[in-house]
Design a protein that fits this description.
By secondary structure, the protein is α/β, with parallel strands linked by helices. The protein has 13 helices and 19 strands. Helix 7 runs parallel beside helix 8 and helix 12 runs parallel beside helix 13.
Length: 453
């Protein structure tokens, strides 16, 4: 989601005649888009901001204009100015759509010699002399302005993300997202369909719909003829000529109804891949986390999905070391992880976030135990993904060619419908087309093979 927000920000600059550079030393403006989900992400962003400010060395140099946006900006607000008085702006998670205007305004003023208050001679600013612009207000219309994409130059782009909503109104006890991103706001269905059509006309073949609880999209509209607004949206996108593949992330088990399960069988473009966060396999912990389902309900959804599409790839998120998680709770997570047979997973060590409900509880599971549980699940995952990958060897898979591979001459990277990464020889004109690849070998992370023409 942050990648998508960053693209939206970059597109705002391009719209205003600016260029994007890979080299931060060349930048007149640098924006750091941040995450608050775990402490480590925040620390990393603060380090990065410090480095960008340092690029103005010798201090007193005016550029680059350095700003921060996204969840950490929202979460810390003025406190970031205390920490980094040299920063130029702090624009919260609900201000990302106006970041370019904020940044360019500061840039222009500074070019014209207007710095208010002036930078102290040869010195750094202090919180008192800071000139930072801070906007972390609650903007309830921000979700209507998140539809800008980078123009496609040169080779076509195979895949695009579309944010279909902002915010979240679940109240998972550990999670900072509802605090920083606000309550759920869904975009109008027609706007999303129009955006997808535009992308299809530019050559995009695969659309991934994004939302914190993506399958709760349009929940305020209820069901029409027994069908949720989210499934109606999937159907509308399935009807767009040129779009070959549809994905979405991340759904919530509580909103995974039968209309959504049967979409996997009914909608030919909906890829057989789902990222469904489990968080814990212990009902006791799920309850403490305020996740409104039991492990058995979760596994039932998995079973239905596997019945609808036997080769479906199912990935998940798990948190280990939630306060008071016992060995027994953890073994239940491990058992559910095996039963669901996830072939991909993100495993997180619990990180208390200030302002969340669970941060009031002692972070009682020692770091070594969290690490141990993390390693155990990672080993289970490696075994499960390898087993899943091995099944592809000898088969021919439809691959959407995305880009040159990071290494290797004439090697390209693409994905199966099940979201497995595949590496094969191809040419630049294959980008954004579907090819058949005979899979010859597999590792935990990728499949390798040859195009069958
Ligand atoms: N600590 C650890 N992991 C967390 N996540 C969210 N909040 C926390 C936290 N406080 C994980 C969840 C979520 C993913 C995006 O990040 O597993 O699904
Ligand atoms: Fe956070 Fe829960 Fe919302 Fe996901 S569903 S963003 S974990 S509060």
């Amino acid at each position: 989601m942050n990648d998508r927000d960053s693209e939206n920000i970059a597109a705002q600059f391009i719209e205003r005649g600016w260029e994007i550079t890979d080299d931060e030393n060349q930048a007149d403006v640098a924006v750091v888009n941040t995450c608050s989900v775990r402490e480590q992400a925040e620390q990393k962003a603060i380090g990065k901001l410090g480095h960008l400010i340092w690029l103005r060395k010798p201090f007193g140099k005016d550029f680059p204009v350095v700003g921060v946006t996204g969840c950490m900006a929202q979460n810390k607000g003025e406190n970031l100015v205390k920490l980094l008085p040299d920063i130029d702006f702090v624009a919260g998670a609900r201000q990302t759509y106006k970041v370019a205007d904020i940044a360019i305004d500061i840039y222009n003023k500074r070019k014209n010699g207007i710095t208010h208050p002036p930078i102290p001679k040869g010195g750094k600013r202090t919180p008192k002399t800071s000139a930072a612009f801070v906007d972390v207000s609650d903007d309830t219309r921000s979700h209507l302005y998140i539809n800008k994409h980078l123009p496609i130059l040169g080779t076509k782009r195979a895949c695009a993300f579309i944010s279909i909503m902002q915010g979240c109104q679940m109240n998972c006890s550990y999670c900072i997202v509802p605090k920083v991103r606000g309550a759920q706001r869904s975009r109008p269905t027609q706007d999303i369909v129009d955006e997808a059509k535009k992308l299809a006309a530019e050559g995009v073949r695969e659309i991934t719909l994004l939302g914190q609880v993506v399958n709760a999209f349009g929940r305020e509209l209820g069901k029409t003829d027994g069908i949720t607004e989210f499934v109606r949206l999937l159907r509308a996108i399935n009807d767009i000529d040129g779009i070959e593949r549809i994905r979405f992330t991340s759904p919530h088990p509580a909103y995974f109804g039968d209309d959504l399960v049967s979409s996997y069988a009914d909608l030919p473009k909906l890829c057989e891949y789902v990222h469904l966060p489990l968080q814990s396999g212990s009902d006791e912990i799920l309850k403490k986390m305020r996740r409104p389902y039991k492990t058995a309900n979760f596994l039932k959804i998995v079973e239905k999905l596997r019945n609808a599409k036997p080769n479906i790839s199912i990935s998940t998120d798990v948190i280990v070391g939630y306060p008071d998680e016992t060995d027994d709770d953890f073994s239940q997570t491990r058992a559910a992880f095996k039963t669901a047979d996830f072939d991909m997973a993100f495993i997180f060590k619990y990180s208390p976030r200030m302002g969340t409900e669970s941060a009031k509880l002692p972070d009682s599971v020692p770091e070594e135990v969290k690490e141990q549980r993390n390693q155990i699940l990672l080993a289970d995952l490696a075994e499960q993904s390898m087993r899943y990958h091995d099944k592809f060897v000898g088969t021919t898979q439809e691959i959407l060619v995305e880009a040159p591979a990071k290494r290797g001459e004439n090697l390209f990277m693409g994905r199966t419908r099940t979201h497995r990464k595949a590496i094969f020889k191809a040419t630049p004109k294959d980008i954004a087309t579907l090819v058949n690849v005979k899979i010859e070998s597999a590792t935990v992370t990728a499949l390798e093979g040859k195009i069958v023409r």
